[in-house]
Amino acid sequence: MKKPILTLLTAISILTGSAQAHLGWTLDDCSQKWGPPKSEVTDDGVLAYYWNRKNYGIEVIVMEGFVNCICYYSGSRSFLASHIDNWLAASASKGWEVYDDGGKATIKTWRNLSYDCYAVFKLVPGTKFYRLQVATNAYSDLLKAMAKGSLQ
Fold first, then answer.
1. Strand partners of residue 2
2. By residue range, what is the domain housing residue 6?
3. Residue 77 to residues 41, 90, 99, 127, 149: CA-CA distances in angstroms?
4. Spatial separation of the C-alpha atoms in residues 25 and 9, rounded to whole Å
5. CA nearest neighbour of 124 among 111, 106, 136, 108
6. How many angstroms separate the CA atoms of 128 and 65, rounded?
7. CA angle 88-90-96, nearest 5°?
8. Is residue 26 packed enough to be buried (19+ CB in 10 Å), middle (13-18) or exposed (0-12)?
């Protein structure tokens, strides 16, 4: 079921042609758009790729060859907030709804049941940077499994 969803997301990203990353892109798609990643870091075995833009940074997590998580970072809350609608639409064209995440330290959260993904806008703890994270539920499941220590 994951592969058809990612294929659909890739097709949508090609049609929209926006400057943002898209769920379902490959690392090559990202590199063609922004050049080679500025840095490559590992976080508990998950590779993250990062690019610097004029007013923000972009980080992507690739799982099984496809982008499953996109994070946009900026020191300006208003800058990120002014781009959220476009970035959500680029990641999954329709179906976003605001939802209550149970009181976590977030500014706003969304879910998209049509594309099996979610988005979180928050201040990154211990920093002065804001982050919009758009990710598949498969990525969330991976993080949960890592936290439980069930991945080897």
1. none
2. 2-148
3. 25, 20, 20, 13, 34
4. 8
5. 106
6. 32
7. 35
8. middle
| pLDDT, tens digit (0-9, with 9 covering 90-100), for 121-137 | 999 999 999 999 999 99
Instruction: Write the single-letter amino acid at 81.
Output: A
Structure tokens at 135: 């990710």
The angle at the Cα of 151, spanning 131 to 57, to the nearest 5 degrees, equals 20
Give the Cα separation of 124 and 34 in Å (integer): 24
Domain count, the chain: 1
Rounded to whole angstroms, the maximal C-alpha distance in the chain is 40
pLDDT in tens, 11-47: 333 333 344 568 999 999 999 998 999 767 655 667 7
Distance, in Å, from the CA atom of 133 to the CA atom of 137, rounded to the nearest integer, reads: 12
User: Rounded to the nearest 5 degrees, what angle is found at the Cα of 68, between the Cα atoms of 107 and 77?
Assistant: 25
How many angstroms separate the CA atoms of 112 and 102, rounded? Answer: 17
Instruction: Dig out the tokens for 45 from the structure.
Output: 């075995």
- Cβ atoms 70, 56 nearer than 8 A: no
